[in-house]
């Protein structure tokens, strides 16, 4: 069943690729800010058409990656754990989001002491917080998240630099039922973490290489509709076979910075 969600997004008004902090970014290749804005607007309108509430934070000049709002906060039951970026180029984003949360009336807003790229590396299953590490978020941020948010955390080790955040390797199809359904790309994880995922989610949708390299796992599900990159053809078929409805979006311009639909979408829970 779909449930209505609240999302926080940031328009890519100042989007460009002017530095390289992941293997997808090549500052020598041209980017189009107007195309990025067009694709982002279509994504936002897709959420609104599906009945979701979208809040928008003002973009800031000089912060070209601020469009990836999912990196700036993990919100569960109305408690906010902000972010602390690994790359200095993105460091200033964290405080803009902190101020947005306070302005929006959130009472519990905690900024992390360890490197923590928020929903980039944290995925809420409905009962557990899956937490990635290996490239960005520091393992200490996992225990910090457990303390601040008061939820059990399961650490997962990422091993392929192309899938530098958890949310380009795994997403929740259903976070509302007692047996949550997940989709993931096993090769992005260490052998031990693959075992953990098999134990936790024996019924998972398993993505293939083609799904993973178009950042197909950077998807957003409301329990029925799954907003995902248009190139993720095989994954969309798998998702449909499980009874979900793929909603395909073109987010190719933002992929030049290593992001997809989920990266542009922070969920405000509670
Ligand atoms: C899953 N999420 C939120 C992301 N993967 N975010 C994309 C961040 C892209 C940015 N150039 C960076 O490298 O930080």
From TrEMBL:
The lineage of its organism: Bacteria, Bacillati, Actinomycetota, Actinomycetes, Pseudonocardiales. NCBIfam families: DiMArgaseDdahMtb. Signal peptide: none annotated. The keyword Hydrolase applies. It comes from the Bacteria. SUPFAM superfamilies: Pentein. This is Dimethylargininase. Gene3D superfamilies: L-arginine/glycine Amidinotransferase, Chain A. Keywords: Hydrolase. It comes from Lentzea rhizosphaerae.
